[in-house]
Amino acid sequence: MADTSIPVRTCVGCRRRAPVTELLRVVVQGTRLTPDPRRRLPGRGASVHPTPECLRAAVRRRAFPRALRVSAPLETGELQDHVDQAGDGSTPAPTVGPAPGRSARREQDVLG
């Protein structure tokens, strides 16, 4: 029987369910995504595996603005730094969501 004392969340990057102990909670502070490893910051949170692959997938899918219910572009630099400390990734920090004045095609080219 599964242990029901540990909550389960879905990673916004890979869409797999996992215990909260395996996921990193992310909140919005101003216009930037902030990691909340202690799960104590106020506000709506989104969960992501603390891996470069899941972070890239979440950015590519524009999952953070949708999960956190914000429409403004979100800076991922602080979150990227936090994930990179756990691994050795060296990808630049993109902005999540469409930037003002950019077409959807151009935004896709920028985010890769």
From TrEMBL:
Matches recorded under SUPFAM superfamilies: YlxR-like
Occurrences of domain YlxR (ranges): 9-77
Record-linked Gene3D superfamilies: YlxR-like
Highest taxon of the lineage: Bacteria
Region entry Disordered, spans: 69-112
Name recorded for this polypeptide: YlxR family protein
